[in-house]
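Worked example 4.2. Below are the chains of a multi-component assembly; read each line carefully before continuing.
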Amino acid sequence: MKPSAFGYVRPETLEEALDFLADHEGAAVLAGGQSLITTLNMRLASPEYVVDINRIECLSHLTQEGDEVVVGALVRHAEVAASPLILDHVPLVAKAMEHVAHPAIRNRGTCCGSLAYADPAAEMPPCAFALDARLVLANRSERRTVAARDFFLGVYETARRQDELLIEVRFPVARPQEYFGFAELTRRHGDFALVGAAIRAQCQRRRILALDIVVFAAVANLVVSKAATRLAVGREWSDELVDAVASGVAEEMEPMDNLQGRPETKRLQGATLLRRALNKMMAEVDHAAG
Amino acid sequence: MAKSSDSLIGKSVARPQAERAVAGRGYYTDDIAAAGMAHAVFLRSPHAHARIGRVDLEAVRSAPGVIAAFSGADLAKICKPWQTRLALMPGHYSAAQPPMAIDESCWQGEAVAIVVAESRAQAEDSLELAQVEWESLPAVVDPEAALAQDAPLVHGDLQSNLAIDHRIEKGDTAAAFSHAATIVEHRFHFGRQTGVTLEPRSILAAFDRRTELLTVYQSTQVPFQMREVYAEQLGLNPDQVRVIVPDVGGAFGLKLHAYADEIAVVAAAMLVGRPIRFTADRLESFVSDSHAREAIATARMALGKDGMITGVEVDLIGGFGAYSIYPRSSVGEIMQTIQLVGACYEFSAYRGRMRGAYQNKPPSGAYRGVGEPLAMAITEQMIEFAAAAIGMDPLEFRRRHYRKTSREPTTTTAGVVLEDLSLQVCQQKLIEHMDYHELRREQTSLRHQGIYRGIGLSAFIEMSAGPSLYGPQGVRIAGHESCRLRLEGSGRIQAFSSSTDQGQGIATGISQVIAAEFGIPFEAVRITCGDTNLTPYGSGAWASRGMSYGGEAALLAARQLRANVLAIAASLLQVNAADLHIENGIVYDAAGVEQTTVANVAATACYSPHQIPLSTVPPLEVQERFFAKNVPYLSGNGIQAALVEVDIGTGLVSLLKCWVVDDCGRVINPQLVDEQIRGGLVQAIGGALYERCIYSEDGQLLNGTLADYLLPMAGEMPDIDVFHVSTPTFSTQLGAKGVGEAGTIGGLGCIWTAVNDALRPLGARVTHQPFTPEHVLDCIAAASSGKQSETDRSALGG
Amino acid sequence: MRRAERGDLVAIAFHLNRRPIQISVAPRCHLADMLREQLLLTGTHLSCEHGVCGACNVMVNGVVIRACLMLAVQVDGAEVLTIEGLTADGLIADLQRAFVARNALQCGFCTPGMLMTAHELLARQPAPSREEIRIALSGNYCRCTGYHAIVDAIETVASQRRGAAVG
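Applying the procedure described above to all three chains together yields the following structure tokens:
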């Protein structure tokens, strides 16, 4: 299909963009376009204007500021995947990148775009959630920072207001004693996941101080698993613990019933995925503990 | 064969068409623009079944860029409806189908109105202004439900949703089963699939009112068939219709059919008086291309005390969609399934029953293998279950039952005439090449580590070509193929073939045959396919007839042309024609001394014919046709194997490696043949693991995008080793049998047996194709809770 | 700030296959349609318009992107290379020869997009394993070949290039 007709606006500055968004409710923001243009091509969306922010220079930064790595709105997935800053300081995102789509999509799609779109099967939202990254939103009048755990409200639903632009995401730099795991189950490489997990752990030798597990794809809402926290914090890594956490988190899941499968299937698959991801983490912890 | 040029036969010559394609110089129908060309878009029914009231296109007609808009009733004024009929199966009734639905629309996606505009985008904009009164009617989706007593009728003109009910019976199956020492039974579900050609359906039609000639560029496999259809439906003579086939971006049987929306484009072109181009976009392809494979089969196999098969029964229901597809009908898939179940093996009693069920879904049609993949999948599972039931190695079980080789054609229990097969040899070769026994050892040791690998086999038979499938049914499709050769004054040959090429390389293979038989270099042949004004009459590409029939026609024509040239040369040289031969375009005597060139002879015959001292100078333009007389089909065979690993924690099936041993008789171009086999096998993998058109209860397609309908991509596909055995057909001189569908025919069966082999220690079996992770997990769970899936009543322990 | 209303055309200027172009396009026209319909470069193919199949791959500013997921207006000021331009440059001549020789294409519809991906893969990863080649190709749908021959052709070229580099 061809898109419905729309007006086109290409601001040169952030101010111009935010002005326009404030004055035009029927405007859609075009960054990477990998999701937006797909929906336009299917006439699933018919905005009055498309606001092309790709010329705005101040949105292309990928830098470290203190204990955060800052990724601007126009930073492409490919840049994130190739970034030494991300590899060294945000290993969870680095692990997730190999699962994101395909080269041509990664060359164009943006990290912030993925966060703003909030597809339940996308990789960036659970990473941001697990790390409780900070998302910076701006509109004409103000700039505000929202914690990732307050930003994602549901399927394609976020705290971003219609006149706001997500201008950057600030990932916390990994601290010593932190371990990360990312796993997803797909039918084919690069597909949206059937079920996935983003994991952040904090360990003192083999003792677990924190275990944040965020299941995604199979579920409509991102949550940090309470079961994992309850079962693991204060305990030491062991095969039994891994099994208990995997089962506990799977049981706690509220999977959607859809073309990808029934809820009990997703729990089964989720448990398997988690067991393997946690075993991997345990091996890393053991290795570091010597 | 001519002497040195016959090194071309069996040579992996690169395809000239490939040189264009890699440079982006492909020439597909959507690439073609005509002066004054407009674009067509369809309003498609959003309902699986609905009565259509008022169709108001007034606002559409006034929208920007719109040239015309027609309803089904508008087109009916110049375009007749058609009705699929099979003369030999009068019980098969299909409702008459108009180019666009008029009072009743019978599947979600059926075209109801057409808009012609300056651009596709404007046409789509205007459709939003169309006003159609819909009255939603009950929809029938499931094939078994369609055949139930009280099922709503799929179409108002049907008396019942039963499209056809046909049986094959030979021998006494009742006795075989009542006296059986062992019976295995299984129920199979085959999901509905669609071909997903990368190039969607595409057509550009122009009726020139000055010359009263209709020209249609179309991405089709069968230009002569389409010429007949357009002529018939639009009240023209076939000689007023020219169908030209540019490059085709994949067909696989999808593009064999006469599509209502394509006929509507032609009708609109006649009404509007401007060329109109229509290319289906991907979303509409899913709801308007032909579908295939949807079937449920219950199979039973009886074994005697000696462990030999005494009888086989199959009861098959196929989903036809809303109409029996035109003009070939939707019967082919289920017919070939029940004809070919068990065909590789010998047993004396067989009963096959096939029923076609209409549904409120797109019409189903031919798709690579047409029923043969189902037949092999059913057969090979039953073979495996039977072998397991009596504790026999499945290799040995197959060896004991394979059809014996025979120089003369034989007839299977189901009544299918087969040429000489080579199944024993193929199996032997496979076992050696794949190092089967080592893989079994590895499988056992990995099982101790909780890794579930499976090794699956599928023997198969590929029925190809065939002159008499349609003519006797009263369907106007040619049974032969033809080739015309023109020797130019330059010494080059221009060839015209009725065969068509969608990338498999038929054009190249035929050129090899011509060059080899005649005696000129490959590069001196230019071949044209796919133009009903230029090529001789024939039927095109289907049932893998390209090299077997098209190649044979070319062989005969080249031989005749060579004889003509040598007759002329001999008369010019005043020698005996029998003492001359042609090699690389040069005419030699028996001693190998150059006498003249083909170019000289041709130039003389073209420009100075009076110099030739013959009372009748034979022509340098020769045409031959061919069809096999002694067998209704050519029959190739082979065996495939797959090594898979099933992750029992997620249900995911990984393909580690595949092997194919294929016997297609004489191989003209080994690389092209191997690649056909590989591509066909991956297509089968698509069906085995990924592909299914998922419908809601009310007939809505739920996964009609490329993101949701899963297709095999490079990351998950295995390397495939291909080997050959060669049993040339005696039906032709060339000896080539069809091979284009071989990979698909055996592929589903061997993935199925492989997955079941992996799950054997768990007592689980998969029953529904595709074997999605969820289905695999469900089957494992059912086995562990003691409930064997479905109505499977095997004599196995568990 | 550039602004066009619905129904306006937008004038853009860019480099197409090393040549400067000036053209007016509708905002809603995607890059693939501009190339195919207005500029008559039909080597870039359309098959899904949802970014999945890869048949429409072209290079914009040196990276491979989906031409169906970029608006034509977005290439204003950019360098665009289609399969025609890549061919004219000779940059993928070895890949093209290898594809033909190995019959790594049948109907040819996926081929331009496939070659784009292969070209970028070898530029980024000169010595990919078969597995890595398959992963890189995982966004290009081919229905005809089953991918084996394509992997062979790319592997061959990678090895040839390394051999040539070593000298």
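Take a moment to check your reading of the output against the notes. Residues 257 and 263 of chain A are 6 Å apart (CA to CA). The first strand of chain A starts at residue 7 and ends at 10.
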